C-alpha cells in the first residue's frame, strides 16, 4: 500500500524544479512542492491513507484522530472509517483555524470529551507549525495528544520540532522516498 501511495503522490501531488521556485506556507522557498489534496480527496488515496494511518496508530490506544482543517480532515476521516472496519474504532475530529464565536465557543468539532487520548494528523510537515498549533488547541480543549502522524514529512525539522511536545511522531512517507520514486519514474 505504501508504494502505491508514493506512486500516487508522485503522479498527482509532487512537483520538482532545479531552482527553488516554490513558496511554502512556512515562507521558505523549495525545489519541490507537495500538494496532497489531489490524493487525500481521491477515493483510492483515501483508501490507502486510511489503512496506512490506521496501521501507524493501531498500537497507540487512541480514541480519536484529527488536526487542522482542511489538510487533516480527509486523513482523519479515512483513518476513522478504516478503524471501524478493522475492529478498533476511533473517532475523527477537526480543529478550526479560527475559534468558533457563537453557540459553544470552541476550537474543535467532533464527538470528543476532555481527557480523551488523541492523535494529530497532518498532510505535509515542513517546520511542524500546523501540528504544533493543533496540539496546542487540542490541549486547550482538555485532550491528551499521544501521537502525531504526518502523511508526508519534508524532513526539514518538523518531526524534531513536534517531538519536543508529544510522546511519538510518525511519518507515512518521507521526502527522500518521494524524491527517489520521482527520479526513478522519470
TrEMBL record:
Its EC number is 2.4.2.10. Orotate binds at residues 126, 154. GO terms for molecular function: magnesium ion binding; orotate phosphoribosyltransferase activity. Its cofactor is Mg(2+). CDD domains: PRTases_typeI. InterPro entries: OPRT, Or_phspho_trans_dom, PRTase-like, PRTase_dom. Catalyzes the transfer of a ribosyl phosphate group from 5-phosphoribose 1-diphosphate to orotate, leading to the formation of orotidine monophosphate (OMP). Homodimer. Belongs to the purine/pyrimidine phosphoribosyltransferase family. PyrE subfamily. This is Orotate phosphoribosyltransferase. It comes from Desulfosalsimonas propionicica.
Amino acid at each position: 500500500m505504501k508504494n502505491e501511495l508514493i506512486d500516487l503522490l508522485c503522479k498527482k501531488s509532487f512537483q520538482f524544479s532545479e531552482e527553488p521556485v516554490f513558496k511554502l506556507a512556512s515562507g521558505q522557498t523549495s525545489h519541490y512542492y507537495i500538494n496532497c489534496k489531489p490524493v487525500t480527496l481521491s477515493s483510492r488515496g483515501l483508501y490507502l491513507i486510511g489503512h496506512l494511518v490506521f496501521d501507524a496508530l493501531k498500537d497507540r490506544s487512541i480514541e480519536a484522530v484529527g488536526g487542522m482543517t482542511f489538510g487533516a480532515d480527509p486523513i482523519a476521516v479515512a483513518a476513522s472509517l478504516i478503524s471501524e472496519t478493522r475492529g478498533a474504532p476511533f473517532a475523527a475530529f477537526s480543529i478550526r483555524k479560527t475559534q468558533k464565536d457563537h453557540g459553544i465557543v470552541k476550537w474543535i468539532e467532533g464527538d470528543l470529551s476532555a481527557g480523551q487520548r488523541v492523535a494529530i494528523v497532518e498532510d505535509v510537515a515542513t517546520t511542524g507549525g500546523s501540528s504544533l498549533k493543533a496540539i496546542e488547541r487540542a490541549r486547550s480543549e482538555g485532550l491528551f495528544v499521544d501521537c502525531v502522524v504526518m502523511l508526508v514529512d519534508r524532513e526539514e525539522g518538523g518531526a524534531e520540532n513536534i517531538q519536543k511536545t508529544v510522546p511519538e511522531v510518525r511519518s507515512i512517507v518521507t521526502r527522500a522516498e518521494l524524491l527517489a520514486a520521482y527520479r526513478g519514474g522519470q
